[in-house]
Every structure is written in structure tokens, then in C-alpha cells.
């Protein structure tokens, strides 16, 4: 067994709210190996974001343990082991798009010329070249989302934690970015944890798909992908792909209340 | 600017009308009182004319104040002790120094409170308590003590200004520095930003609306502090000394002109902060 | 020298105790203990330095003398408290904050007023109390009414500025939402802009608490009946009864802190949703 | 040699002697460098001198004796003012004609250490000051004569040389007013004397400086009495607020001259005794409770004036 | 021709920004008839949101005209002609979920009992029953989005303007809500303008699909659906459906820069 980059053992997390506790995560076990691309899928409110936040040391589990890169999540965060894309764009309203993207680079102490080059490169990647000088509220919802993706890609973290990064994007851009992300992953051998609501997206991107279910939030299924590492877009029409997608859909449906 | 002219003029005109009316109302009693003692019968117009031209009226009419202002600003050499400009300058210098120190102290305390748990838990109640000490009561002692250790002149006055002005800044900045949302703070955490970095790139920018609002209040407070501070230094010069001397001799016209001068000073200073606020917020894309 | 040394030791001990307490998990007890220890440390240092450096008691009496005086003067202190805090400060606070609030809403409602009244308002409200107080005493008489009037003038401006700023604090999308409901001005005000303004409004209310107290006390320097905290302070300074002066200041500090604390509690209840409150359970 | 003098009140003709001495170079002649610190409504000269902010101060004897009993050992070293300028000024239309009419009326009184003469007068008259029906209602009077003009009080405290004239200036005629001079009521207390801390008198060097200071100051007072108009001009020149008027200062100088007349600068022990007795006689709440000792000295004036 | 509920004529909208004007809409012509279900699809930043905001009188066009219900957009807004779902949830943090949903009802003056009943019904509809007392920040992203949908459905507007309402939802919930929305539309004969990024969603829901293209934002294609009004979920596997989806995809691709 290869070394686990992320290892969760019997993870529990309960929120205390004004009307009683909410079990966001219960008994979650998972290992993510170096170079894995793991997607998380599950009904809204099942704890995907919460789990990702535990990996990022943004939430403290109320039970169990989690390690990242073999050390505690906190140490991993402090060594800047990962880049995180939040579910909402969360750009700073007082900074232009360009300066929003350069912010983590400034914080990590990259030099000026390097910052400029990286910002230009990632904005190009998400198709926002030319919007560098705009303020966030001058951008459409999808453009803001892309800016926030660019921000997480601008520095070279070995681990990427992405919470529905492509939710607000149309199919064509999404396909494009899916391809780009796969290329990046293939080239750099990053480890990626990826939350999505789209079954085809999960299947297309991942080496493993984790299906979760709510109340309490837990893992109900882990599906290994048999697809090759190199994936052209039209792999999505192969029977193998459809077969995996079907299994994911079944797993997902099991976690839902309605029959439909 | 021209857009604002009409509303301001309207309001100012309204105030003048009210003011003249109030002058009649407040000063009439004295007019009748004096006429009665002199045994003359006053007609209504005579009474009105009298109320607008008394020597020591309860409320001087606007033109009386205007004339006094004109005589003590334009017609006096600005180095003369009878020039309001001279006195304003004395007060202004203490105000500005006190404001600068107060703002700096306020921000420093707010940063301490937001970042340091010990300070968070211990300082705030005492900062509040400090503000409930009636400064006018201890100002003389402060001045005496400072004098004893050899500090005199501008600094004691500025210290009293500071004492009054740091409080609004602390209160506003503690709120402002804590106003970033959970997600924005989390983002900083994911980059393992140092507290300094989080401060400069997130907390400080988010606190800007609070900072400027507090600074406006602090500026007004600082002016009050400078004026209060002038009294126990012997009230020798400055707008506070003018106010005091005026009220000691019942010179209402002189009180009002010093008062209006102080208010004008405050208005200029406060709108100066407003201007900076607009420029800064605009550059931050927030206006 | 011994006393000075003792003062320094007290400072070190207090600091250490607080650092230790602050590391403990946050609870009601530590939340209370830390400021209390801080305060006690301050008092002990004060006592030690006053004794150690031989400061004359007509300049600064030691806390022990103040406490003794406090204990024997509770009758006077209570009478002064009622006169100044209850009658003067509180009534002025309510009227001043209320008026500022209403005017802020009016300013916000009519852009005409906003452009006209706000600059003029800045001007009027910056009238220094030293000048205002004698005039207001002349207008409203010697008793608490003139003190309340001074307080009204003092608290007006901070409250106005904060409320006006707060009323502009709602977000674009939140306002758009109200527009889609064809919501009337008053509905938007009540359901969106006022709640969004609350953090600012409470800022103003908090600053105004201490200003109200200062205003009521200071106003008494310019003429008063022969009771009230300001009267007692100025008279006692003249009589060199500094222990009574400080006993009055202690009353002012306690009243002010309680007043402020009450407003802060209310704030916590009303703006529980604001990140500045939410972050610190 | 440096000397710092703390005045009891703002720069005005009440303190003309000191300003004249400075302006005419009398201090220089004695080799003194004198700093005159004006007072004001918030300045307790006793506190300033206790804090080391001044070497010598001008204050009224009741305040100085009360401070002495509080543990601040002040000593009178010279007494340029012979008579008291204090009086109670009443509106005739308020129905006050004699002291018997006072009960039930509202009176304005200066506090901040200036209330002692009034309180001892009232207790000698047997009028309570607690606002009861048979007593008077006391107001803490502010800086000016407004309470009388606005009819908020029946009587207010005034000085012969200052507030009284403000009332006149405000449009009252002397016939509209009834005045009770403390001198006439037999309750006069000594005003404007020079006081220093007792400990300092052990220092021969300090005593020397005071001797020079008192000599030059009395020369100033003499000059001021002889040249009242010039003295008033000098006071005006030294008024940093620029708020005083020439007319008022000249008139004040005239009145002040009447109060200083009869004093060569040395304290008259008889006046002192009268003041002490008046303060001790305060009924249930006297200003001082025991006969002070060592509260004055002729040591300085003896040397300075001979 | 039936009466136009929404009619845009030669609509132009230019934003002035710190670095020059942005042509968000240019020469847009469109008629939406009573009972239409019109989807808008197009690359991110092409002006979909802006167009919807013009209909809602939240933006003032810089050229051309727009009428809603035969009157100006402003009058329509004031007569509360429509419900609007924003791209981001935009819940008020000081109100619980239940009170967020009841907000428009309070404003429109519904009586207390009615409000309670309606809130319960729409929260049930979006599967948030039981979360009434929670505050927005205690909910996951998808749950917030659903609360905002519930808020717009709580009152009976004849027109619904929905800006990517289902963007943050997983496939199963999305299918469920798609069905519910169709049912509602069928039952009440509402007119719906609907922005989406999902081609299948657009085809499944709409009577007409408007394809837009950016810089400047304009309409490039309007595709009439030939599907019947009554649509079971598995209509998505019919050749007719796939044919329409294909046409939309082609239209969409034409508006994009990249070939892929
Ligand atoms: N700060 C919080 N306080 C209380 N409850 C919370 C908090 N954050 C999340 N929850 C609850 O925890 C559960 C899981 O939330 P989480 O955000 O992890 O869901 P999710 O799987 O990311 O959903 P979605 O796909 O809608 O984003 C939800 O029921 C939510 O209400
Ligand atoms: N307030 C604004 N100021 C300046 N430019 C704006 C503003 N709002 C939108 N824009 C610009 O208008 C264009 C269209 O934006 P719009 O929000 O309508 O796009 P959209 O089609 O909804 O995109 P998405 O699918 O990403 O939400 C974008 O280029 C955007 O940058
Ligand atoms: C607060 C205050 N304290 C004292 C006096 C009275 N006073 C002290 S010295 C002096 C000489 C008068 O010219 C007078 C009147 C006052 N007026 N206001
Ligand atoms: Mg989530
Ligand atoms: Mg959009």
C-alpha cells in the first residue's frame, strides 16, 4: 500500500446549534494516496464541505483523527500543503481580480516578477485574461468562480482541495476546465480532493469516487474507477464510463429520501 | 458640489429663520424687563429690533455674530491676541496632535484586543471605565502632574484630546477588525497567512468603513478635548479660553462667535476625513 | 523603595496570572476573573506607588483612602448619583440618541436632507460642550434639565454618524431582493436596512453611553443645584477633599461600565448574526 | 533666580500689582525671573502649589486655612489686600431688602473653595442652606451673572470690582439692586494674600527669594495704585485671551485700589484673628474646627518692607 | 400571436467601469408569451444575469425598451409581478430560514396563518422541512440555495425569474426539483425565465431555449422545443430530446473561443 497523503480514521463532527446538535460527520474512514484524484458526491447537506474543511484544518473534528502528508492537519496547513477552492467565490471586494489572485502569492512571499507571470498564466487558464483590473462585483457569477479557481492554482501546492469549483459554469467552459485540470494533475502528479454534484464530472475526473449520505453524514460507497489515466473528452460515451456513472447514480439514489 | 449647494443653502436659510425667531423669543423678556424699569412702552417692531441688537442677549442674532466674526478674523492681524484665527490655530494644533495620538492609540489597543486574548478579556472594561472619569475633573490634576515632571505647552492639552478621542476608535476598530466573514478568515488560514498578513490584507481593509466613522467621531471628541485642556492650563489662549472669558463676562456674542468658529473647525476637519474616506473607499472599489 | 518594588512585583504577578487564565478554556469564570485581576493589579500598583513615591494626598490619594471615604459617604454618593446619572445622563441619552436616530432616518429618506442636513449637522453637533454648557444652563435652568440638554448635544453626533453609515451598510443583492418584492421604503427600512445597520447603531449607542456620563458631570461645572456628581467633584477639588473626588469618580466608573455593559449585552442579543459576535461564542 | 506665581483667577486688574512689577522691571531689578500663571475656573491654586507647580500663590484666606486643616501646611507671607470685595447682590424686585428677607429665596454662590465666607455668614445669621422652607436654596453659580439677569436667583455673589459692574452693564441701575457687603455685615474674610508651603520656609535661600519677590510685588502694587490707567493697560497687554475690555479693566483697577489701600503688604494680625473667628463660628458645620497655628508669618515682610 | 408577457426591443446595456465600458447586452430582441418556459444558456459572462435583471427592473438599460405584462419593467416590479431567484442565495443572516422564506409574504401583507402554511409547504417542497429554525450560516451551500428558491416560490407571482437556481444542487435533488418545477408550471401556467448552465436541464424544462454569446452580450439562437408539455424524466433518453440538446450544444459552442 502506497503512503497515504490523507488518512481519516473514524472521524466524527457534531455542530452545536440553537436547536440541538447536528451530526455533520460520523465514523468517516478514508485513505487518499499520493496522486489520487478523489471525488466526493452526495446529497446537499451530507457533509462534503465539512469533510473537506476537516482536511484543511478549518474545522476541528469532535472525534477520530485525520492526518495530511503524514502529519496533523494543522501542521500540514501551516506548511502550506494545499490549495483550497471554496464553494462560494469569496473574493475580497476591495481588491481587483488580478490582486485577488496574487494575494496568496504575496502572502507566501513570491517575488514580484514571478507573481506577475503566474497571475497572467492562471487568469489565461480560466479564460479571464483582460479582467485583471476589474473588481469582483463587476464580474458575472461564473467569472468570479473562475477567478477563485485561478487563485488556488496560482501557487504550487501538492494537494488541491476543491469544493464544487465548477458549479456555476456552463457545460462548455466546464468541459474545458475539466480537461485543463486533468492535464495539470497528470503533469504535476498532484493529489486532488474534489467535491461535485455532477455524476459525469466525477466519473470523468476521478480515480476514486466517494459517495456520501446525510443525517448523519457518512461514506456509503467508494467506487474505484477502471478508466485509464489519459482521458479524452469522448471517453464519456464509452460503455465503461456509463457503467461507472450508473453505479454512482445508484449509490447516490440510495442516500435520498424520494423515490424519483 | 453645485449639486449640494441648493440643499445646504435651503437648510442654512431655514436655520437662520429659526434663529432670528428664537432670538426674538428668548430676548423679548429682557427687552420688556428693561423697558419696564425705564418706564417706556415698547411696540412690537421696537421690541423685535431691540432683541436683535442687545449688548448681552440671551441668544445673539446671526448678524451680530457675523459682525463679531468678521471683526475678529478678517479685520484683525492674525498674530493679534484678539484674532480668532490666532486662537483657532492654538486649538487646532492641540486637536490635531491629540487626534493623531488618539487614533494611533485606539488602533493599537484594538489590534491588541483582537489579537491578544489576555487583552481582549482584561482591557476593554477598563477602557470603558476610563472614559467615565470626568476628564474635566482630572484635567487640572493631569496638568499639575505633567507640569511637575516638566511637560508643558502643547503636549498636556494634546494628551487630554487623546484621552477623549481614542475611545471611539477602539470601539469602532474592535468591531471593524472582527467584521471579516468566517470564509474570508478561513481562506487566510488555508494559506497559513501570518497574523500580520491577515491584518494588513484582510482585517484592516474590512475595517475601513468602521475606521472612518470612528475617526469622524474621534475628531470631534478631540476638539472638545483640546478646548477642555485649555481651561486648566490657565485658559490663556485658544478657543476654549475665548469661550470661558466670554462666558465669564457674559459676552454672549463672543461666546457664539467662538462657538461657531469651533464648530466650523470641527466641520472642516470632519469633512476632511469624509473626503479621505471617499478617496480611499473608491480606490478600494467599495464606493 | 520597598513600596515601589512591591508595586512592580504586583504587576508581574497579575500579568502572569492573566496569561495563565487566558490559556484556560474560555468560560464565564475566566471571563470575569481576568478583568478583575487586571483591575486589582492596577489598584495595588497605585497604592504602592503613591506610598512609595510619597505623592501628596491632595494630588492623588491612595485607593485605601478612597475606599474608606466611599464607605462613609454612601448617602451623598447615592444622592449625587440619582441627580446626575438617573436624571441628567439617562434622560439626555434617551432623547439624544432617539433624536439622532430619527434624524438619521430622515436624512436617509430624503437625499435632499442628506446633502443639506448632514454637513450642517456635522457643524451643529460639533459645538463644544464647554461653550454649550453655559448657554444651555442659561436656557434650561440650573437643575437636571440643562444637564440633559448638554447630554443630548454630546451624544447626538456619534449616534447620527453611525446610524447614517449603518443605513448604507446593506449589500447590493440584499437591496435588490427587496426591490423585487416591490417593497415600500418603510418595509425595506424595517426588514433590511435597520437590521443591517444594527452593528453600527450599537457602535454609536456604546460610545454615547460614556459621553452621556461625561456630559452630565461636566455640565454641572457650569452651574448646578448643590448636589450632583459634577458639583461634588468640583467643590471637593476646591476643598482639597480628593478622596471624595475619587469616590465620585469610582461611582462614575461603575455606573458607566454598567451602562456600557448593558448596551453591549443588548447588542449581543440583537446582532448575534454579525461575524464580530458569531466568531466568539 | 526663578519664581513661579500661581494666580487665583484669570488675568485681570485684580492682579495688577504683579503684572506691573513684571512689566516695569521691578522683578528684574531684584534679579528675579518671575513666571505668572493665570488661574481659571478649574484651577485650585492650593493643588498647584502642592504638586510643585508654583512657589507662591494668590488665594483667599478661608481656602488656605481649610487646606491647612486638610494637611497642606500653607503659610501667609504677605497680604496686599486689606479689605474684602465680596458681596451678595440681590434684585430689588425679588423682595429682598434686609437679611431677614433671605429665607425662602434662591441664592447663587461660588463654590470651588470660595463658598467658605458665604457659609460662615449664613451660619452666623442662623439661616440653614439646605433648601428647607425656613432656609435658603443655594445654587452653584457659574462664571457669570446670568442667574440674576435671567431671574433664576434672587441674589448672587459678586465682587465689588467685577461682577457687580457686569450687572450694571447688563442694564440694571444701582437702584434696582440691593447689596450686602461682607465688610458691612461684619463677616469679611481676608482675600488675595500670598501663600507658600511651610517646609520651604526652612530653606534660607527660598526665604531670600520670597523677600525679593514680595518687595518687588509691593512696589508693583504701589505703582498700580498711583497709575491705575496705566496698570489696566499693562493687564490688558498680558491678557492672552484678548477678551478683556479696556473700560472694564480700568474700572476694576479703580475698585481694586480701594481694597489694597491701607495695606503695606504685611498681614494685620487683627484682620487675621477676625477671619479665623468668623470661620470658626460656623455653627454646626464650621469651615475650620480649631484655631490654626503658624498659619502666617511676618518674617518675609519684616525684611522686605524695611 | 399571443400577448407578450415580456418584450425586449433592441435592448442595450453598457456598464461604465474604471477601465472602460463593458457591453453587457447589445441589440437584444425577445418576446416571451404567457405560459412560456424560456431558458437562457450561454458562456459565463455573456449577459444572462444582466438580461434577467433588466426584466426585473434591477438594471436600467442604456438603450432600447423592455415591457413586462405590457407595462414598463418598473411598474411590473411595483405590482409584484414576479418572483426572482438570485444566482447567490442572499439570505439575511439575522433571520432564520423560516423567517427568510416568510419575508416576502410579510412584505406583501399575507396573514399570519397563511404565511405559516405557505412556509411549511415550500420548505417541504425543497426538502428543508425541519431546518426552519436554523440560521443561514448553519446550512450547507446547497441548502441555502434551496431556501432561496423556496423564498421565491412562497408567493404566487405569475412570472418567475430564476438565475441558475439549481447550480449548487446534486443531480438527484436537481431532477426532483426539475420535476416539481415543471409540475408547478403546468398547474399554474406561470411564465418562467430560467438561466442555466446545463444543456439537458434547459432542454428538459423549456418551451424555448435562448442561446447567448458574449462580448458584446447578444442572442445568437432561439430554439423552439418540440417536446410535449407533459414530460416524464425519461423523456431525456428519446432521440427527439437528444436532437434538441445537440442543437443547443452547437449553438453554445459557436459562442466560445476554444475549439474543444
Ligand atoms: N457552522 C455550522 N453550524 C451548524 N451546522 C452546520 C455548520 N456548517 C454546516 N452545518 C451543517 O452540517 C451539515 C453538513 O454541511 P456541509 O456544508 O458539509 O454539506 P455539503 O455536503 O457540503 O452540502 P452542499 O452540497 O449543499 O454544499 C448540514 O446539515 C449543515 O446544516
Ligand atoms: N455591476 C457591473 N459593473 C460592471 N460590469 C458588470 C457589472 N455586472 C456585470 N458586469 C459585466 O457584464 C458582463 C455580463 O455579466 P452577467 O452577470 O450578465 O453574465 P452572466 O451571463 O450572468 O454570466 P454567469 O453565467 O457567469 O453568471 C460581464 O462581462 C460582467 O463583467
Ligand atoms: C468656578 C468659579 N470659582 C470661583 C469663582 C469666583 N472667583 C474666584 S477669584 C474671583 C475674583 C473675581 O474676579 C472670583 C469671583 C468663580 N467665579 N467661578
Ligand atoms: Mg458544501
Ligand atoms: Mg450570472
Task: Describe the fold and architecture.
With 260 residues, chain A is an alpha/beta fold. Chain A has helices at residues 48-55, 73-78, 97-108, 112-125, 141-153, 171-188, 199-205, 239-254, and strands at residues 4-17, 20-33, 37-41, 63-68, 71-72, 82-85, 159-163, 191-195, 208-213, 218-224. The mean pLDDT of chain A is 85. Chain B is mostly helical and 287 residues long. Chain B has 11 helices and no strands. In chain B, helix 1 (2-38) crosses helix 2 (44-51), helix 4 (84-115) packs across helix 7 (154-177) and helix 10 (239-248) packs antiparallel against helix 11 (252-283). The model of chain B has no long low-confidence stretch (mean pLDDT 82). Chain C is 82% helix and 1% strand. Chain C starts with a helix and ends with a helix. Chain C is an all-alpha fold and 281 residues long. Helix content of chain D is 39%, strand content 16%. The mean pLDDT of chain D is 85. In chain D, helix 9 (204-226) crosses helix 10. The longest helix of chain D is centred in the C-terminal third of the chain and has 23 residues, at 204-226. Chain D contains 13 helices and 10 strands. In chain D, the strands form 2 sheets. Chain D has a 5-stranded mixed β-sheet with strand order 2-1-3-10-4, sandwiched between helices. In chain D, strands 7-6-8-5-9 form a 5-stranded mixed β-sheet. Chains in contact: A-B, A-E, B-C, B-D, C-D, C-E. The interface between C and D is medium-sized, with 24 and 32 residues. Strand 1 (224-225) of chain C pairs antiparallel with strand 7 (137-140) of chain D. Residues 48-49, 87, 163 of chain E line the site of one magnesium ion.
